[in-house]
Every structure is written in C-alpha cells, then in structure tokens.
Amino acid sequence: MVNTIDEKDLKIIDILQEHGDYTTRQIAKKTLLPATTIHHRIKRLKAAKVIRRFTIDLDYSHMDRNFVAYVLISVDLQLLKQKKKTQHDVAQEIKKFSFIERVDIVSGGTDLVAIVRVKDVAAFDKALMGELQLVEGIAKTQSLIVIHEGKK
Length: 152
What we know:
By secondary structure, the protein is of the alpha+beta class. It folds into 2 domains: 7-47, Arc Repressor Mutant, subunit A; 60-145, Alpha-Beta Plaits. It has 6 helices and 4 strands. Strand 2 (100-105) and strand 3 (112-118) form a beta hairpin. Helix 2 (24-31) crosses helix 3 (35-47).
C-alpha cells in the first residue's frame, strides 16, 4: 500500500483533480514520467484508497439546476432516541432526495448541513417545505441562499 506520497504522486493527483479524464499517456506527457509508472502509481493510490473515485464536474446551468442553498438542520435528539435513530440515519434519509447534493454532520449550533440544488425558488420551496422538513427527526431548518457560487 501507500506508505508515503511523494512529489510524483502529488503531481499525478493534481493533474487528475483537474483532468480526471486524462489517459495515462496524457498524464505521462505532463509529468515526464513513463506511462507504465503512471499506471502503477494510480493503481497503488486507488488500492490505498488515496484515490477513492473518479467523478465529473457538472455545469448545472445546462441542467436547469442553478438555484443553490445551504440548509442548516437541527434534529430533535429526544425524538431520535425514542425512535432509535441517529443523526447518521437522518443524514442517510436526506441523501436519498434527488435535490440533495451533499449532507454533512457538523458541530456547533446546528447538526447537519445539506446542499440543495434545484431549478428555482418555487422548486426550493417545494423541496424544503414539502419534503425535507417532513423528515422524521428534523426539528428546524435555516436556509442560506447562494448568491455567487465559488469554484475551485
């Protein structure tokens, strides 16, 4: 497995983060390393779970999903105890909604943060009031509407 990640691994990772669709030859050309070395290093990084998965970066404007909000969720811990549920269970239930991009369990004044991505305000209203707030164990929500989405 991976004991240490060296500069060559970091170069490969940097390239893959920006261009996940590059072939080993294209990465080899950028790093000046042999393609077989690239192949073996990627395989090793995947086996060690340094690289967990390859994914895509979507342009949501082409998908009619430009409205983004962070929803801060507080859970009713007493109700969850009665129902023998945890915050993890609530998070898993929330993740099943198609409008949920991500759910994180956090510390501080709130318990969960969900990223909601929908077409517009009307769709957000329907998602929040008609589905998300009805999940058993959710006590209250607070929404933060994204005005400008920062990119990496």
